[in-house]
Amino acid sequence: MVDFKKNYFQKRTRDRGPRSNSRISALEVQVISNDGKNLGVLQTKEAIQIAKDEGLDLIEISPNARPPVCKIIDIGKYKYDLQKKANKAKKKQKVIELKEIKLRPVTDVHDYNFKIKNAQKFLTKGDKVKFIVKFKGRELQHANLGVDLMKRIQEDTKIVGKTDQSPKFEGKQMIMVIQPL
């Protein structure tokens, strides 16, 4: 009874990485040698023995192929190369951020120009820019000022970006998103 519980509650770990040596379940495998030569279709036990004779491991490269493709290589080196490839792919990935720029319908010319210059800088870097025009009190009655401001922003940023989300009201603020070209 105790042995059953011990095995039943034992933590199950998932397989890490490709199958190698005795973990390969296929009876026959397509074998590629360490220097890249195709050795043909061999029995799995025979292929494992060839790998052991060379002091290396038999690693399943393509398990879904019929028969599975295996390569004779050092498992540590193989895992290291996979990790390097993953890190390199991750570095090349570009994460698009959403930058926010807040304005008022009565924003002064110099402040407006400064914020547009920042928006153009963000867009050239590849980030999206979200413009928010906040209205306070009676300014809400003059929504046309906000619409005019948004049109001016679209004109000033059309060199580096295009409108992703056209201007719309959300409560007491008007929102527009511009994405890089």
Would you write up a description of this structure?
The protein is α/β, with parallel strands linked by helices. The chain folds into 2 domains: 17-80, Roll (Ubiquitin-like (UB roll)); 98-180, 2-Layer Sandwich (Translation Initiation Factor IF3), CATH 3.30.110.10. Helix content is 38%, strand content 29%. The chain is built from 5 helices and 8 strands. It has helices at 2-8, 44-54, 75-92, 109-125, 143-157; strands at residues 28-32, 38-43, 57-62, 69-73, 98-103, 128-134, 161-170, 173-180. The protein has a 4-stranded mixed beta sheet with strand order 2-1-4-3. It has a 4-stranded mixed beta sheet with strand order 5-6-8-7, covered by helices on one side. A hairpin with a 2-residue loop joins strand 7 (161-170) and strand 8. It is elongated, with a radius of gyration of 31 Å. 19% of the residues are buried. The model has no long low-confidence stretch (mean pLDDT 88).
Distance N to C terminus: 68 Å
Structural class by helix and strand composition: alpha/beta
Tell me about the largest β-sheet: 4 strands, mixed
**Tally of extended strands?**
8
Q: Residue share in helices?
A: 25-40%
Q: What is the class of the largest domain in the CATH system? A: Alpha Beta
What is the CATH superfamily of the largest domain? Answer: Translation initiation factor 3 (IF-3), C-terminal domain
Estimate nothing, just give the exact number of structural domains: 2
Radius of gyration: 31 Å
- The CATH topology annotation of the largest domain reads as Translation Initiation Factor IF3
Uncertain residue segments: none
